[in-house]
Write a structure and sequence with these properties.
219 residues, single chain, alpha+beta
Length: 219
């Protein structure tokens, strides 16, 4: 069982804490013959898979290397355009490595703000009054759990779909946040969390939750 990451979002939708606890390996390398059976396009200055999925290669995966040469943005290290190299039949057979690049800080901040808005939209769409926002989102590869505190802080955990006990884990994370951040007289509730003790105790709590879920599933 795996817990992938933890996010804490303040009342205004700003990202004030983020931890990658476990990053799954998503890189896939395959040698292709001409023509390439995948459709690639430029997105945010990266070459990504727009259509076609096979052998672990998914839509949204980014081209990370071509024939062992690393890709930077939309170009190879020698300056050649990636799409031009892949479109040239003379370069085949061609080995391409795909994967998901690590999110940048700016991308994480943007996604946190977007989720903050979606949470509010979820509450407004409810046919019942005083409904909470989004508490759980499910995909085939992970689940997103959200717990909003009485003060409006949102705690988010991304976990393997089989990971158990995440609801209780969210409350434990809030206890740690209260003990090591909110009780600090120099900390303001909407400011970024920078506390080594919080980091250490959070890591230990996540490790314990993974082990507990593993033993529960095995028994």
């Amino acid at each position: 069982m795996t817990i992938y990451s933890v996010y804490i979002i303040n009342r205004a939708g700003g990202l004030i804490y983020q931890l990658d606890h476990s990053t799954p390996k998503t890189e896939v390398e395959k040698t292709f013959s001409y023509p390439l059976e995948l459709t690639l396009k430029i997105m945010d200055e990266r070459v990504v898979v727009a259509f076609g999925q096979r052998d672990g290669i998914r839509v949204g995966h980014t081209v990370l290397a071509v024939n062992g040469e690393a890709v930077k943005g939309r170009q190879l290290e020698d300056g050649r355009e990636v799409l031009e190299v892949i479109a040239n039949q003379e370069n085949y057979p061609i080995a391409i490595r795909f994967g998901r690049p690590k999110l940048s800080t700016n991308e994480r901040i943007m996604l946190a703000s977007m989720f903050h808005s979606l949470y509010a939209i979820g509450s407004q769409l409810s046919p019942e009054q005083k409904s909470s926002g989004i508490q759980l989102l499910e995909t085939d590869t992970f689940k997103l759990y959200c717990y909003q505190t009485l003060s409006g802080i949102k705690l988010i955990v991304l976990a393997d779909p089989r990971q158990g006990g995440v609801e209780g884990l969210l409350k434990k994370i809030y206890e740690l946040y209260s003990d090591y951040a909110l009780k600090n007289p120099f900390y303001s509730i909407d400011m970024p969390v920078r506390c080594e003790l919080f980091d250490l105790n959070l890591q230990a709590t996540l490790d314990g939750a993974e082990k507990s879920s593993f033993y529960t599933a095995s028994s």
